[in-house]
Amino acid sequence: MARKFITYFDNEGNDYTDELILAVKDKLDVSKNIKRVLIASSSGKSALKLYEAVGDDVEIINVTHHMGFSGANESDISDEMIEKLEDVGIKTYFGSHAFSGAARGVTNKYGGYSPLDVVADTFRMFSHGIKVGAEISIMAADAGLIPVGEEIIAIGGRGHGVDSAVILTPVNAKNLFDLKIKEIIAMPRD
What we know:
seven-stranded mixed beta sheet; alpha/beta; 6 helices; single chain
């Protein structure tokens, strides 16, 4: 048995990025077996803040929106930011969202819901950021950027900034229901 602490924020959003990163740093200080941290940062700013807090003690992978998320042929992260991240050893991954991707194109055109909408909404019952953390872990595992079955920290939020972090064991998409959330580090209450 172990007693652990969860940081709860009043609301979701950008206002808690710095506090979330401190909670992740605290967890890394006592969890010596975690070697990788995934962070969802469309602009790269939160990923850079994470690096500034934890340095290169762990591998950091930034997962950004897929190309075309905000507009045809557009990237939400600048080439300059990708270069800054690479200079400190952070990889940036672009890929279709595991819980929407092409299925979103079908539901946008024909209506209704895909089974993955139900999965995403179930994770959102905790927080949008926890949904994002689970989603980016599947995306990174499918891209071969992280090994499945090894505990990692996954960080997400909604819109700008980050407000949720979990320790989980990632899986490939084909094994979605084998994903295990081991600990919640932080999340918003609302």
